[in-house]
Design a protein that fits this description.
Blueprint: E1 3-5, E2 24-26, E3 31-33, H1 49-53, E4 59-61, H2 69-82
Antiparallel strand pairs: 1-4, 2-3
GO molecular function, one term: 4 iron, 4 sulfur cluster binding
Pfam family, one: Fer4
Organism: Acidihalobacter ferrooxydans
Length: about 80
């Protein structure tokens, strides 16, 4: 599953540089996660790095983008192939 950032985000800027897939970007009000790029760090780390550094725990699993570990790994492999 991809992750998403709730409106509890305080725009602290710590999550964006931690994302190995560059899936996190500033939105108009809060940071956003692109579900096409988010692999929950599968292929890079054991745990989602954005969740590890978030001081307010506002990054959750996105129920609208459910994916298995296998699907996340396939997405990761596709992203790596694109360069």
């Amino acid at each position: 599953m991809a992750l998403f950032i709730t409106d509890e985000c305080i725009n602290c800027d710590v999550c964006e540089p931690e994302c190995p897939n560059e899936a996190i970007s500033p939105g108009e009000v809060i940071y956003l996660i692109d579900p096409k790029l988010c692999t929950e760090c599968v292929g890079h780390y054991d745990t989602p790095q954005c969740k590890e550094v978030c001081p307010v725990d506002c990054i959750l699993v996105d129920p609208e983008h459910e994916e298995t570990q296998e699907q996340l790994m396939t997405k990761y492999e596709g992203l790596m192939a694109q360069g």
